[in-house]
Description:
2 copies of one chain form a homodimer. With 323 residues, the first copy, chain A, is an alpha+beta fold. Chain A is built from 9 helices and 12 strands.
Amino acid sequence: MTNNLSSENIIINKYLNKLNQNKLGTFNFKNDASFLKLSRNKKLIITNDTILENIDFFQNDPPESIANKIATCNLSDISAMGAYPYAYTLSLCLSNDVNNYWLERFSKKLLLLQKKYNYFLLGGDLSKSKNLVISANFFGFAPKEKILTREGAKLNDDIWITGNLGDSYIGLLSKKNLIKLNKIYKKYYENKYLYPIHSSIGYKINTIATSAIDISDGLYGDLEKLLISKNIGANIYSNLLPFSKKTKSLLRSKIVKFDKLLSSGDDYELLFTANTNKNSIIKKLAKSNNIKISKIGTISKNKGIYLDYKKIKIINKSFQHFF
Amino acid sequence: MTNNLSSENIIINKYLNKLNQNKLGTFNFKNDASFLKLSRNKKLIITNDTILENIDFFQNDPPESIANKIATCNLSDISAMGAYPYAYTLSLCLSNDVNNYWLERFSKKLLLLQKKYNYFLLGGDLSKSKNLVISANFFGFAPKEKILTREGAKLNDDIWITGNLGDSYIGLLSKKNLIKLNKIYKKYYENKYLYPIHSSIGYKINTIATSAIDISDGLYGDLEKLLISKNIGANIYSNLLPFSKKTKSLLRSKIVKFDKLLSSGDDYELLFTANTNKNSIIKKLAKSNNIKISKIGTISKNKGIYLDYKKIKIINKSFQHFF
């Protein structure tokens, strides 16, 4: 035993996993959320995400952006489990930088999101803190108690993705002045970074998809999580990967790196697998919900991720969540 | 609107209260916990408490103590609602001071408490942080869906309290070197501060008591919360207030102040009211559970708290929790 802090993955496996006592619904901390089985026909989906100043957001980010982030990262997990949100609790550790005007803007944005996605605040906790730390638990239900997990992908399933990849990551690069963008691009991307919108269709695909995960650590890392437990692989194709027009032009002019867009960033889009016979249903769903859903490849026998037939070497990503 | 941070009470009333959207079970953030009504016959009790380094514990406190505190403050809220715990989620924001040995001791204590009170870890979130911040949501059930709240106290009800008052507060004074105690006393009180044990009998009194609250801000402040909404008062008597033998001797020698013991400290005992006809049941309950339960007074018509017929002036206490 060393005196250094283990990687987050090791912390979970070595110290925290035993605390689940092998109970149903914890998934050994290997899904986006867990559930409590409350009766024969009732499961409550529960997720927990915490965001911290200087790590998940910048000190001077608008309060609306911080409200948006704590809601979005949790709502995204609820959606990835095939569920819709119902309520949440909020732990606010407020620093001295927080004043009444901040609170007014922060709570107004929270209410806006509550009304948009139809959930309410159950309660929580207030503390004073050196740095701003916000933690939330979100509770949701899955239609017909059908919960989507990361474990159901089957050989020859199609691999689908909602929305576009990399926008939020490019926004982060711009905010950090690591790339220089023109005014219009800067505004577009930084807005995507500050106000990410999760893909909320999880509860609409929970009988269609065989597995799902939200993209919160980059496509590669999250796709890998769909494959690991089943010993399967994925063939994906660069020409099928969804990027916004602006991102395509940045890729052409080599301002951003293709690989980086697939291994970083909080996209909060859904990555899911489905049998090929669901093809037309998924296309209809995209149309009726006015969203982009792209087929990016298929599940194969060969372990690992293959991009255009070339195996991707994945640098072991840390796990920020233990569900 | 000023640029200063409002008191916690104002934050809740002005900015957060509207977020509950008047939903059942939130109690307008005025109870120890809230509940989700999941079906006609199923309510899930939910509470959230967060503890922070240098505020709720000291940086070098034993990891077992920190584990004990995050569990106890939440378990105490669950008990105050007349419920028993079922599961919890844990958000760990870990500082660089945390190493493997710390994690091993911390998680071992968590598991011990889980086994003692029969609940399990559902999942959570891991982050890196400058200071250690730990937030938990605890979930519980109330027998026969009978939830205890702060609002049910009736005229002429008896006022009861479990355990002893002030031990944890004296421990804090000793840890801060604000009082000097001999070795035996020092060990006793600091142990009470580091390893508080909540009163877990809430679920056993939920059909006996008319109202309940856990003492987490001192007797006066918490008793006041049982009275406010009903426009009633309390007559309590100093000779009936429960103190340990050691505390009685410290009071006699004026090393600690009587008033301070009633207005400070995390006792995590239960304060509850009950009709006088429950007197013998409560005494039997105390005996069969091998715990101390003391009758300290009665509910009266005159608003406010009267100690030995003298009205107590309560300095408005801040609310650390919005449930």
